[in-house]
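Thread: Newbie trying to understand structure tokens

Hi all, I'm a second-year student working on a class project, and my supervisor (Dr. K.) asked me to get a predicted structure for one chain before our next meeting. I've only ever worked with sequences, so writing a 3D structure as a token string is new to me. If someone could post the tokens and maybe explain what I'm looking at, I'd be very grateful. Here's the chain:
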Amino acid sequence: MDIERGREVERFDLDELLGGTAVAQGVAVGAGSVWVSRSLGVGQIARLDPNDGDVERRWDDTFPHGNLAFADGALWVADDGGILRIDAETNQIVKADLFGNFRLTAGGGFGWTTNEDKGVVYKVDRTGDIVAQYRTGLGAGHMAYADGNLWVANHDVGTITGIDAITGKTTTLRFGHPVTTLAAGAGRLLIGVEPGRSVEDSIDALHGRVVKLIAYKSQIGWADTAFDIGPAAYQIAFATCAKLLNYPDAPPPEGWELRPEVAEAMPAISDDGRTYTFTIRSGFKFSPPENEPVTAETFRYSIERALSPRLGGEAQGANYINDIEGERAFRDGDAEHISGLRVDGDTLSITLVAPSGDFLHRIALPFFCPVPLDTPFVQGGVARGGTGVAGGFHVPAAGPYYIADRNNEEYVILKRNPNYHGDRPQTLDAIVLREGIDAGLAVERIEQGGWDGITTLFDPLLDPGGQLDERWGPDSGSGENDPSYVPARRPHTGYIALNAGRGIFADPQIRRAAALALDRPALAAVYAQTPTDGLLPPDVPGSGRSDGVAAEPNLDRARQLMKGKVGSAVIPVFDGCDPCLTEAQIVRDDLAKIGIDVRIAPLTNFDPVFQPGSRYDLLDWGTELPYPDPVSFLTQMLVRDIPAGWLPAGVREEVKRVDAMGGDARVDAASRLAERLRTRDVPLIAVGNGHIGTVLGPRLGCRVFPPFGFGVDLATLCLADGS
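---
Reply by user tm_fold:
Sure, no problem. This is what the structure looks like when written as tokens:
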């Protein structure tokens, strides 16, 4: 661009210059060159002649490769993968030992980068060493360097911090509002300020019985139950949703049993098993300011919205319910409504195309939570109000709590719904789920007494057997005034699938031998799972197995089953996934001990693994299902998650036979089938069950972990002192 004339002078097509089709990310100017970065799945940085676009130098397979800044004869590069420096004279690269730092600027002979979740600024010298770090405040993000000072905007606390590049002296400017971006130069600062309170001030302004918890960033989602998945989203839905039928606030086995909530009783079921008729109780209302009654029409509308094609591919409802009569015509655009959803006064009837053993569990999923009748058929359409990115959105709900305020990737504030008159507890005035805080800083806040716990924060600190487990876990010997660590279970089984349709694993004896040879504790440790050899996770009825149950490797018995046979197999791994590679290496080493040579094949696309005639033999995979039906779990695992053609003969038909059952017979048959598959057919080798590391401060009482609450039950929480 010609700045004086304000017009374009030259344009360079990076795809033509550098090859491939990629997204341009960063750009900087320095040392007579234009520097650009691109993402091709892997990173690329190029140095261009600004006069003709000739490529002076390029660096392929570069990580990091996102943001660029040039100063003092060097290009600095940073993104979530780290920070590096390229000397403009020598073109040599030096990488710093930093990760999770996306923002970047350069000046004073240093590179500067921030970590928003820690609220820290790092100063990096030309050798890649971190020579200083400054805690400026949560949300430390945009930076600018001018006149010997670095300036950083701390979004969450509403401040700007100035750092003298030589002395390290800091200056703090407070605005009382979220600050977003800034620019510096010629003795001036230009600062972008949003309306409303800062994130921290919004939370501090809450009064009464308030519980403050820390959650994983980006887990809470749109605050639209038709879309949201993940432990934090499920937790919120369990506390805010009033369903036709719901699970009690109780651990298993009681927590497995569906009970009427907004429905007056369990539904009447037609003689052919296809039609369920619910009578809706009066008295349920959405939270203020909507205050709209919850009726049979509310549920018809909400279910139809959740299944509507207008919501797009990210909506979850059709992944779990696709068997209502007329649903296919509705989703194909051939019908305005789903014919199998009918309302008559205070009754709602749902007719399926065929009887189903798990329909009541599926209709109780959070994707079908009731929403007001004017909720638009768009993603995030449940949110009301708002003042832009600063927050202010509320989400009406008919359960014990509702989302009173939501600030995307910053926090969700739940408040007690005064219109709820059901049987579930609601003793707190507000519950805060704070996103975007580093695990170490979260622990510091809990120890200082200002915060009450950590829920759904995925970090090695919270792994079973990790540092917090050792400090505050069940076997730590910690006192009653200390926080407590709980590895909350999740309905997940990780496993190694075996291709029984070809190669060495077509022989069931060899599949059994492989199951005896694998070191499950070592494999489970890779993903911080609890070792198991059971297909069904412990929180699913019929599992018959408890945490920590896993057969030890038995190489002698495995070699007996091999009967001197040898063979080879291929296991794919996601290219660049270190845990995937580690797990594959353990499998390779373990199976080598019984004569099976495993080759590891890195892939950037797993589609070939799932194609008919797949030439792969092992798969590191997992299954999770958010409702307590063991047959559905086995169906998900064996029919949907494992590649077609990998199952031993007859297994798919056996799963279908059990799926046709109902009641206790269904659970018993599923349990027997899972045990038979584990010991005889061995279509897969179970490795471990997933957990959600949870820390609860001593101030919290009424702690309940329902099997499908995905962590602690937010609705039951109270203050331990009874206030």
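A couple of things are worth pointing out once you decode it. The first helix runs from residue 14 to 18. The chain has three domains: 14-194, 203-431, 489-691. Feel free to ask follow-ups in this thread.
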